[in-house]
Amino acid sequence: MKTPTKRILTTAFLPLLCLSVLTSDLMAQQGPASFTPMPPQDLPDVDPAVVEAATALLEEAQKAFQEAPAITSVVKVFVESGEMQKKIVINSKFGPDGQVFVEAPDSLVVAKDGFLNVVNYEIYDRYLRVQMSGNVSDEFDSIYRDRFAAGFEVLMRDGEPIPVWLEAIMMRSVGVPAISGLEEVKDESGRALKRISVRGTMGSGHLDYDPESKKILHVSSKMYSLEGIEGFQWDMNLNINATYLPKLPEPIVFDPGKRLGVSSLKEVNPVTRNELVVGSPAPFLTGKRLDGSDVTLSGLKGKTVVLDFWATWCAPCKRGLPKVNELYLENGSNDGDVVVYAVSIMETPLKAEDKIEKVDEYWKKQDFSLPTLVCTDDEIPRKWGITSIPKLVIIDSEGVVAESINGYHEDLKKRIQSKIDSLESSE
Which of 224, 111, 215 has its CA nearest to residue 169? Predict the structure, then answer.
């Protein structure tokens, strides 16, 4: 079962794609097969003249954005889905020679002097630094296989086709948007705006465009109801405050702090770069017993150690625990040279005491002699390179990783015991 760590880079590097962030947990619970959008029936045909006129306005907006010598912009996004609300503020600057600065609460993107720099603020020691061979959106497409991740303003500035940046500015909430209407509206100050309506397979929305300033000022979208998801609701409002300037008030600078620049995502991601390798020393680990006392991996040196990483929300983990419990009993119940522990990680409560309480509540309902530890340090998955659970790790008496088994297997017990016997016979 995939763990939340797989979204570390996605959510931090792609701050504009709120849809994936806000609906991922719901999708994980319901399953992707449940998600069938239900658009309104018998939608009217769209007059080609309306599409042509609206497209001309979008072309005008993009041309003004591209030709401005410098731009400062503040984009405020508000997304509401059921009881969940999320606000994001993105600050951007665009200068000469393709210079770009885009900062969101959890990430920073700077293109300058021929390099693209991407900082994930959740990763304190490294950032991505690659030499550019094209524009920013091209580099995002090369690195992430997704040019939409660069954000709609970068896509507009780079001259991407209207359908590309239009999908991005709608936060992908409507699917591939098609123009469905054009009308004149007035804002709160009485200013006349052009409202361009769009719709797609997933939802509908509109953009409010000011012909006088040639700027898109506001974007709104609403997803259709989803078959099988009662009461599903997803609304997005985006406000753009862009200022076109002859030059930037201050030059774009990039300061990564103490982070080291590396050239690949694998080197940045603390999970993938800390991937467990058989034959390498096991990372440091401290787990709490259910009575609150600590067990350290370093304190078990000299013994063969079996660690079964699990969580109370993980169904495959629960299937494997009885087999690990049998191994514990058959190998001396931790009184000999073999030590077996279940290790709970990534429990949903935020506080350490709440994590322990949740595991304790579950463990008391089981007929296990096997002891479980609770890792209250949320960094453990990163330090151990754990991308999915269950994960079982066998460590030899010298503290070296001897075996790593991902997922549940019917012959799990046999495989573990075989490795234990092999280690004992080699000593």
Answer: 215
- Cα separation, 415 vs 167, in Å, equals 49
Helix 162-169 to helix 48-67 angle, to the nearest 10 degrees? 90
The CA angle 198-204-209, to the nearest 5 degrees, is 45
Task: Write down the residue that tokens 């030899």 correspond to.
Answer: 396
Q: Which of 256, 271, 286 is the last residue of a domain?
A: 271
| Element housing 329 (H / E) | helix 315-330
The reported pTM is 0.71
Distance separating alpha carbons of residues 356 and 346, to the nearest angstrom: 11
Instruction: Show the tokens assigned to 243.
Output: 């200022």
Domain region containing 179: 4-271
Q: How confident is the model over 37-48, as pLDDT tens digits?
A: 888 888 889 999
What digits encode the pLDDT tens for the residues 87-142?
Answer: 999 999 999 989 999 999 999 999 999 999 999 998 888 999 999 999 999 999 99
Same domain, 244 and 285: no
Lookup: tokens for 70: 């410098």
On whether both 308 and 357 belong to a single domain, the answer is yes
Total number of domains in the chain: 2
